[in-house]
């Protein structure tokens, strides 16, 4: 009977084209986001098919930057349950709440946010769930994790954002965030319950405010299968882009790779996470850890970070300079003229912080300046791509956190890189899952980075890209996963002995075979 409700000339194979047309007929990105999530609910195979065939167009709608807008407005665009909420009011019986999730035994990856620092947008409370959903869509599209093995989680611990507490349609509990002791108790109960209820699960922490991001990573990383995407995933992806950028820059200047000098504008979880990972760039080129540290300068809202500053937060101490004792340096151009960096990396959430004077100061001291404005979403980016090209006369080596379109300047078309952890976390998670790693080591994160850096094709190298093209993300995730598996084996962290018996090429094709594809019988992830 149901079939009679379909139009007689409807050809199902055309439906992907029809959906694409419907999607493109909407002009506002948020409307497209709502449309796509509705489609996922109605026909998830069709949705992922569309996504896989149109990554470059659709990823920015499900993920950064549009997901930021979806989070800000989530209480108002909410349609249906899409993930798991665990609230501070559930303290004492979190295990019962988690046990209500279907398919707990087969679940493989959870992305967990507490909504306290969504992208650079601040404390969005219970509106943070779409960030977990967006990241998991990338696990599915980018690494072939089976949709039903993914668990998007938002911890509702209240919010300190008054406009949400005052909003009658706000979907979270109406209270301020807990003090550290209450939050620690909640988190300890949550993570232990996760381990019991989801025995094969790996947890990705996402968009926790900086202090808590560092704290819970340190507290849990060797006891549970967890990693923090903003610290480790970002560190890994930027190390990778930096390796390729430094090669391009040094080829132009003749400067040895170990002579690079890196200035971080922004010293939060992302800035410090990346700075720590970049130490290994220098140790790879023969410097000692102390010499490597001396190649890095950090800046926060008060200026160049020096060790003599009073009340310095714990995470800023490691890179605080001990070799500067002049008056506080606050202006970025002055800081550039003092440091003489070869690379300027922005993780500050400060829109347009890289002004014309800043970019020109970088271009004056470098043949090919490396400038990465990495803050998300795009309306918080430190630098627009067309400005970067124009102000450096096309010489800049550029990657941004959110996507930009290519720019044509003086008849040459330039292609930007996207330095976003989306190139790392799907493959890192996949590798950890397949090897059944007990935890994620620093060396696994570093190997992920090196695998990504080496994944450029000849054509991508000729185009001077620092990251591969997005439509190859499944190949890239497979290469990253393979490097992660081999490193887990080296450190004896793996429990899947079978993978040890496979030569590299067989391992790589097995990873590909394990990937879920829409409309196909389900493999094992
Ligand atoms: N590209 C990526 O893959 C990626 C990954 C993680 C985070 N990010 C982005 O990085 C940004 C920062 O994230 P976070 O977790 O480190 O946040 P955070 O709030 O902890 O850190 C922001 C840092 O910027 C500094 N800052 C703020 N205003 C400043 C100013 N006027 N001048 C100089 N410094 C200033 C702050 O002092 C702080 O050190 C966010 O926009 C986030 O979306 C990007
Ligand atoms: O979500 C992103 O696009 C990258 C990163 O995790 C961020 O917090 O900005
Ligand atoms: Mg994040």
UniProtKB/TrEMBL annotation:
Pfam families assigned: malic (PF00390), Malic_M (PF03949)
Source taxon at top rank: Eukaryota
Residues covered by the Malic enzyme NAD-binding domain: 231-489
Domain Malic enzyme N-terminal: 40-221
Cofactor: Mn(2+); Mg(2+)
GO biological process, one term: malate metabolic process
GO cellular component, as recorded: mitochondrion
Note on how the cofactor is bound: Divalent metal cations. Prefers magnesium or manganese.
Annotated positions binding (S)-malate: 117, 376, 420
Record-given protein name: Malic enzyme
Biological source species: Pisolithus tinctorius Marx 270
